[in-house]
Write a structure and sequence with these properties.
The complex is a heterodimer of chains A (537) and B (517). Chain A is of the alpha/beta class. Helices cover 38% and strands 15% of the residues of chain A. The chains are: A alpha/beta (537), B alpha/beta (517). At the A-B interface, loops of A face helix 7 and strand 14 of B.
Chain lengths: 537, 517
């Protein structure tokens, strides 16, 4: 058993909980249950409704001669729980961490430095499906330290790795847009077929919503546009060319994005939307999480900006259907496609993976290989069928080379006519490698109407990108995954402070000069200097 | 083998037919899966304790109108359970808690306020149980205190905290000595102690087997000190097969704990596949087989029980409801579940649960939604569909009224899933052979024809000789009387002393009973 010393001075600021004085590792010896099966302790944020006991997990256990114990992180405490486990040297065999560019140096890199994580084997050819997936991970080389990758970046969609834009976008009340046109048949219509709006058409639509809000909603006051609190002010997307702290100027030098020329143009547009035209909710300053959704679902907002993962979009539609019973569901949750002043759609960029499955440094090679065996299997056709359909013969049969669901294994809720939840450990385990977007089109649990609408939007954006009509707003990758002492230490704080300054400026709580000063601080200077030094600028 | 009376009766029962006919013998040495005999050799339980349903304190009695309560009692009357589990929270009654502003919990003081709606409702439930000879497992969900607050500072030691034992004894003393309640036979030392949950989200996070075991010892002593030696503590009340094995092993290898508990009881929320393939009985036997190795008194003084019985598939964790609860299949699977547990030696089973109106999910926005696991909903605010009696209520009525206290449960070799994993049956013989019945479950996609016969020693001197009530449970054939409750599909002028041949429709349960259920 190795004893590792973790020095508080370096990590205290990075790991928010727990004493960081020396901690002895727990034994790394593999343990076996009474039946001689290797015990695997796996932890994942998606295991919240699975404890590792079901017939499908039994199939995996039997096939690989393992005993899987599953536990989960509470989503809202996810980072804290991982950090606490790291600090306490109390890691399960695998952990899942929400690795982001801004916490890269402060977590992943430090954990590697302190020998907390076990790297993947150099040669992954034994696991061809995993290897293929890893080969397509965006910026995967940035995640390697001394040539080693310390975990599995969890792929968004293994069949569509080239998608590099997020689903942070708008839905809107198409029914209201149409209603305005019905109310004013002699005026130029505000509704645009296909829900595609130029910037002028969009602002005109917003003005029309504003003018007619009471008639449309029945409420004496409300909001045209609401952003979920993390996304405000979303309209800056149509101006800025980087989503977070850092951008580059025309000379390739790193600058504070929030003080850059393009961002400032977007900021002024946002301010106009807030205090000039009063398009944004006047309560947006105080929004808590989910407030924007609440207003939209309550019929008190016309346009909602959020992250439309399939799960979120399905949830929105479900809640909308319950709260706005008389509104056509598709009209009430239609995607609004806006072209910015430059004539292009604009979406925030994203990696093609989300979070990382990491391995406790203390586990044996054999145990790690066993886990990789399982994950690789779950990416095969057979493993995927187990994860999506269940057990052949019970849940489904293959007839003429096609999967046919069996009535015994697939039953519908008599009230809703939908397939109800089926706890399938194989599906949960597959989340350790991929979020499963590759299977949504045929997963019996997928709400196909929502899927088709979201997929159509994604295809439209992909086509727009191919045609040069979509601007993907990305932080320069060489800065994003760059590690410098100050950047690692201060980026999260700088981002939070910047967002606060943006909010305050838009709501007239600070002057433009005060806003600008925020980005002239010593902290910003120090971080940018370090970045530019590394960039050679 | 004696030749039986030959009776041939042709019947058309909706989608099924039943024919009583001359007997065919079960061949020795080889399992005959078509001609089933219930004989002495296959008695698995000699003194069954009955079936029941969870009927806990209603968390919001204000939602229960007097009409709803009256309706609930009629529904309970027809269900006619013989065992129930009634759970509450101590927080509802503790008042004036004083921790003396120190870390010493031994000097803490508190009082009780039993004059509230929650206690009134608890007593209503318990008095009903007293009046109807229903054995009650009484308990508290978990230690008092609210998540994020822990005002009693009990989340560290959980049930091993000595104050827990004192509170338990105090509350039982109030119910038994002051209110005169007699039906409490078991105490539940916290719900599902092996499920620790997520830190910060569960009061049970710090629980371990040793912590729970200390709590059991404390409670045992506290109850004995108050003269409640006859109240048994449930040995586990755990959930899941793995966690249960850990607790059962811990209990069965400790003489002190064996003395302290009165059963080996757990919860089984079973995946459909385990039931559908007949594997549940195999697993139950496996679990109790392990216990038996350490505790020869299993089944004698410490009895196998299932205190929460339900289906896992269909569970929506967000709403804590089961999407299949209103499907006919839920009733069929629960009947199959019951049969498999009984032939595996479980002495009583308590279904989860009676009424959607008992338990709620408390949402972040301050609203409450009822948990949909019940046999109906008593909430007038629920949709008419939810208020209706669900199919699994009717299948449960048949089983609770057939499988009574003191009856014998008789297995057959054909229940081995390696012989046939889609058809199962059991014989039930009432005390002193006053009645008998056959429960047959066909999980296959085709009707099957089987003959059933009781060996003569069971029925020689008793039972109604010339009447068999036939009940068929499936979506097409379930017969509901004008009173809204299940009734027989057919009455045959035959005796269970005869060999009976029946065609059991696909995906159905058929019950033959010498008494009306």
């Amino acid at each position: 058993m190795k004893r590792k010393i973790i020095y508080g001075a370096l990590l205290t600021a990075l790991m928010s909980l727990g004493a960081l004085t020396g901690c002895g590792r727990k034994s790394g010896e593999d343990k076996y249950d009474k039946d001689g099966r290797l015990i695997l302790n796996l932890k994942n944020v998606y295991f919240d409704q699975w404890q590792g006991e079901d017939m499908y997990t039994d199939i995996i256990n039997e096939k690989f001669n393992v005993k899987i114990n599953a536990s989960n992180y509470a989503y809202e405490d996810w980072d804290t729980m991982v950090n606490t486990a790291i600090n306490g040297n109390n890691l399960t065999d695998t952990i899942q961490f929400n690795l982001k560019a801004y916490n890269f140096g402060s977590t992943y890199e430090s954990w590697v430095d302190f020998d907390m994580l076990k790297p993947l084997p150099n040669n992954m050819s034994k696991w061809p499906n995993l290897k293929k997936m890893l080969d397509n991970i965006s910026n995967v080389d940035s995640l390697k330290i001394n040539g080693k990758l310390y975990g599995i970046p969890i792929a968004n969609d293994i069949t569509n790795p080239q998608k590099d834009f997020s689903n942070f976008t708008y839905v809107y009340r198409r029914d209201w847009a149409k209603k305005i046109d019905e109310m004013y048949p002699d005026r130029e219509p505000v509704y645009r077929e296909g829900d595609v709006y130029t910037w002028e058409e969009f602002t005109r639509l917003c003005d029309a919503f504003n003018t007619n809000f009471k008639t449309l909603s029945g409420f004496s006051s409300g909001s045209v546009l609401v952003d979920e609190e993390w996304g405000f002010p979303s309209v800056t997307n149509f101006y800025k060319d980087a989503p977070h702290c850092y951008a580059k100027d025309s000379n390739g030098k790193a600058i504070a994005n929030f003080a850059g020329e393009k961002y400032l143009a977007g900021l002024e547009a946002a301010k106009e939307f807030v205090s000039g035209k009063k398009i944004y909710s006047q309560d947006q300053f105080n929004f808590a999480a989910n407030k924007a959704n609440q207003l939209y679902l309550g019929g008190q907002a016309a346009i909602l900006y959020d992250n439309y993962s399939l799960a979120n979009y399905i949830k929105l539609r479900k809640l909308f259907k319950a709260s706005q019973k008389l509104v056509d569901l598709d009209d009430g949750t239609a995607f609004l496609k806006i072209k910015g002043p430059d004539g292009k759609f604009a979406l925030e960029g994203t990696e093609n993976w989300f979070s990382m499955t990491m391995f406790n440094a203390d586990i044996s090679d054999a145990k790690q290989e066993k886990i990789l065996d399982i994950l690789d299997y779950l990416l095969t056709e057979e493993g995927t069928r187990l994860a999506i359909y269940g057990k052949e013969g019970y849940d489904y049969s293959i007839v003429d080379n096609k999967v046919v669901l069996n009535e015994m294994g697939w039953e519908k809720d008599s009230m809703t006519g939908q397939y109800a939840t089926k706890t399938n450990g194989a599906k949960y385990l597959r989340y350790m490698a991929t979020l499963g977007n590759d299977t949504k089109s045929y997963d019996p649990f997928t709400e196909q109407d929502a899927y088709n609408l979201l997929n159509a939007w994604q295809e439209e954006m992909k086509a727009a990108k191919a045609a040069g009509n979509l601007r993907v707003v990305k932080e320069p990758a060489d800065i994003s995954w760059m590690s410098t002492p100050s950047k690692n230490d201060k980026t999260e704080g700088l981002l939070n402070d910047a967002n606060t300054a943006v909010l305050k400026y838009c709501f007239d709580k600070i002057s433009f000069d005060a806003y600008k000063k925020e980005f002239e601080s010593n902290n910003w200077k120090k971080v940018l200097d370090e970045i530019n030094a590394k960039l050679g600028k | 083998m004696k030749q039986r009376t030959k009776n041939i009766v042709s019947l058309i029962l909706l989608s099924s037919s039943l024919i009583a006919m001359a007997g065919c013998n079960q061949s020795k040495g080889k399992v005959d899966k078509d001609h089933l005999v219930f004989d002495k050799e296959h008695i698995v339980l000699d003194n069954f304790e009955g079936l029941g349903v969870e009927w806990g304190t209603y968390e919001d009695p204000d939602k229960l109108s007097s009409d709803s309560w009256e309706r609930s009692l009629k529904i309970m009357d027809r269900l006619n359970p013989q065992v129930t589990r009634c759970m509450l929270n101590y927080d509802w009654f503790i008042t004036n808690f004083d921790d003396k502003y120190d870390n010493d919990t031994s000097n803490d003081t508190w009082e009780y306020n039993f004059s509230n709606k929650l206690m009134n409702n608890t007593i209503d439930v318990l008095r009903y149980c007293d009046d109807h000879d229903i054995d009650v497992a009484f308990g508290c969900w978990n230690v008092p205190g609210s998540l994020g607050k822990d005002e009693y500072n009990m989340f560290t030691k959980v049930t091993s905290d000595p104050r827990w034992a004192t509170m338990t004894a105090d509350i039982l003393e109030y119910l038994i000595k002051f209110q005169g309640i007699k039906c409490i036979k078991y105490f539940v030392n916290s719900n599902e102690p092996n499920y620790s949950g997520v830190e910060g989200k569960s009061k049970n996070y710090n629980n371990t087997f040793d912590v729970w075991a200390q709590g059991v010892k404390n409670v045992r002593k506290a109850l004995d000190d108050r003269g409640f030696n006859n109240i048994k503590i449930i040995g586990g009340d755990t959930t899941g097969f793995e966690g249960t094995i850990e607790y059962f092993n811990g209990i069965s290898t400790s003489n002190e704990l064996k003395e302290a508990v009165g059963d080996y009881g757990f919860h089984v929320y079973c995946p459909n596949m385990i039931i559908d393939t007949g594997d549940l009985a195999v697993r139950i036997r496996d679990i109790y087989g392990k216990v038996k190795k350490n505790d020869k008194d299993l089944g004698v003084t410490r009895i196998p029980h299932i205190w929460e019985a339900g289906l896992y598939d269909g569970k929506n964790a967000e709403t804590d409801s089961n999407a299949y609860i209103a499907n006919y299949s839920y009733g069929l699977r629960m009947a199959d579940y019951t049969l498999q547990c009984a032939v595996a030696g479980v002495n009583s089973i308590v279904y989860w649960d009676f009424d959607d109106g008992m338990h709620f999910m408390y949402n972040a926005d301050g609203t409450m939604t009822s948990k949909g696991w019940g046999m109906f909903s008593s909430l007038s605010t629920d949709s008419a569909m939810k208020q209706r009696l669900r199919p699994w209520y009717h299948s449960s009525v048949l089983l609770t009224n057939l499988m009574r206290k003191g009856c014998k449960i008789i297995d057959t070799d054909a229940n081995n899933p390696e012989v046939d994993n889609s058809f199962r049956s059991m014989g039930v013989v009432g005390p002193n052979a006053t009645y008998a019945g056959v429960v047959a479950v066909n999980r296959g996609m085709m009707p099957v024809t089987k003959t059933f016969r009781f060996s003569e020693e069971f029925l020689a001197n008793a039972i109604n000789p010339n009447r068999i009530y036939v009940y068929i449970y499936n979506e097409a054939d379930l017969k509901i009387g004008e009173d809204g409750f299940v009734k027989e599909n057919q009455i045959l002028e035959l005796s269970l002393k005869d060999e009976i041949e029946i065609s059991v429709p696909q995906n159905s349960m058929v019950i033959l009973s010498s008494k009306e259920l």
